[in-house]
Amino acid sequence: MNPGNKPDNEILETDIVVIGGGGSGLSAAVAAAQKGARVTLLERRRSLGGNSKRALGIFAAESPLQRRLRIDTSRDVCFQLAMAYSHNKINPRIFRAFVNKSGDTVRWLQEQGLKFFDVPSFFPGQLVRTWHCPKGGGAAFINILIKSGKALGVQLITQARAKRLLLDEKGNVAGILATRKGEPLQIKAKSVVIATGGYAGNKKLIAKYYPLDTSNMFRIGLPHTGDGLQIVTGIGADTEGLGTLQMTGPGFPGSLPLSYLAKDPNAIWINKKGERFIDERAGLKQFEGVNAMLRQPDQTCFTVFDFGVRQFLIENGLTAGRGLTYREQRVSATAWVDDFQKEVGKGTVKTTDSWDEMADWMGVDSAVLKATIEDYNMGCDTGYDPIYGKSRSNLKPLRTPPYYALRCYPGLLTTIGGIKINEYWQVIGKNDRPIPGLYAGGNDTGGWVSDTYDINLAGVTFGYAINSGRIAGENAAKFVLEGKP
Ligand SMILES: Cc1cc2nc3c(=O)[nH]c(=O)nc-3n(C[C@H](O)[C@H](O)[C@H](O)COP(=O)(O)OP(=O)(O)OC[C@H]3O[C@@H](n4cnc5c(N)ncnc54)[C@H](O)[C@@H]3O)c2cc1C
To answer: What residues does ligand 1 touch, defined as CB less than 6 Å away?
Structure first.
C-alpha cells in the first residue's frame, strides 16, 4: 500500500476498454454500449475530443441529408474513386465496408441529436459532394457522442494513458494496463478497441517510416505519440500503411489566413532555385499541392505576388480562404492583410520594390528569379502558361511594385495508418489472422488510404474515424456478448 492507503494498483473490470477519446474511440464506445456491452474509455488528455474536435465535417455517401438536398453521390462511385485514387493500393473490403456504413452513420448521428446543415464542396468544381458539416464542426460531434456515451453508462476516464495490453495464458485479450494521473490502473476486459489517433508528435516514428526529411515541417494537429501502434505491435500485431502523413501546403505557421494566402492560385510559388514548379491551382487541393512542394529543395517555397494581385485579393477575397473553414473559425475575409503586416520584421515575409532585393532575401540567384518572373509575365500576356498550364483566370502579371513574398512550409495535420486491420476492424497478427478481441479504428489504422489524403472525397479521414470506430465498437460488443468475432 502507498502512504495514502490506496491500493498500489487500482483494478477495474468491464466488457470492453476503448483507448482514445477522439471521434473514433467515442464512436466505438457509444456503438458498443448501444449493443448492451459495458464500456470503459480511457483518454490520455484532460479533455476528450483529440484532433476530431478540430475537424469540420465527415465523408458520407447516400446519407439522408444528401437525399434531402438532392445530392446524387452514390456509394459505388465513391468506392471506385477511392480505388482509382490509390492505384488499387488500398484494401477494397475495408473501403467498401466504410462507404456502405457512411450514409447510415449520418442517420445514427442525427438520431443522437447532431444537426448537419450542409454538404459543401471543398474546392471549386468538386465532382462528388460528401463533406457533411454540422454547425460547430468537430466539437459538435464530440459533444453529442459524449452525451450519448454518458446516457448509455459508458465510463469516461480522462488523464488516463494506456500503456500495455494484458493477455491471458492462451494469448487472448484480457485487458489493459494504464496510468491515471501517474498512478497505475489496471482494467480487466475481454475486448479492447485501440483509437489513439496516430503518431504525428513522435519524431522517431516519423523518421523511421516517412522517407523524406521533415525538419522544415510544422505540426498543426496534436502531438500524438503512436501509443496504439506500439501497444499492439508489442504483442505481435502486423502493420500496414505506415509513413502516410496527412499534410497541407504550402503552409504558413501560426496564421490560418496567411496559410490560405500562401496557397492562392493568383500568386506564384518559387523554390530555392528561384523557379516555379507547379500550376499554383494545386493549392486549392492543398493536400495534393503539398506533394509538389515536398519535391523542392528543403521542402520549402515562397509564395510571391505584386501590388496588383494584392489589390485583386483584397477586392475579391482569397480563392480558397472564403468557405466553411473561415466561417467556422470566424476569420474575416481580409484578415490576411493585417496578419501579413504583423509578420513584417520577423523575417518570415518580405515587401520590397526590387526583385534583386527579393532574391537576396530568398537566398536565390537574382538572374534566375528575374527570368522566372519574366517568363511568367509573358505567359500572362499571351494567356498561356507553357509548362504548367495554369488557367488564364489566375494568370496575373507581376509587374507592379511593391512585391510581396511569404516563406512557406508543409504543415502536418495527422499521420494515417499503421495497424493492420480487416473489414471488421479486427487487428491482424503477423500470422495473418485476427487477434481475438482486439479491434482498432481511426488514424491508428492502415489499408484504407494510400500515400495522399484524398480530398476528392472530402471529409474522408474524419468520416473514416467515426465509421471505423462505430463498426469496431459494434463488433467488439458482438465478440463479448455473443462470442462471435
Ligand atoms: C486542424 C485539423 C482539421 C481537420 N479537419 C478535417 C476535416 O474537416 N475532415 C476530415 O476528414 N479530417 C479532418 N482532419 C483529420 C481528422 O481530424 C482526423 O483524421 C480524425 O479526427 C482522427 O480521429 P481519431 O479518433 O483517430 O484521432 P483523435 O481524434 O486525434 O483521437 C485520438 C485520441 O486518443 C488519445 N490518446 C492517445 N494516446 C492515448 C493513450 N495511450 N491512452 C489514452 N488515450 C490516448 C488522444 O489524446 C486523442 O484524444 C483534421 C485534422 C486537423 C488537425
So the answer is: 19-25, 42-45, 50-52, 54-57, 161-162, 195-197, 220-222, 224, 227, 413-414, 442-443, 459-463, 465
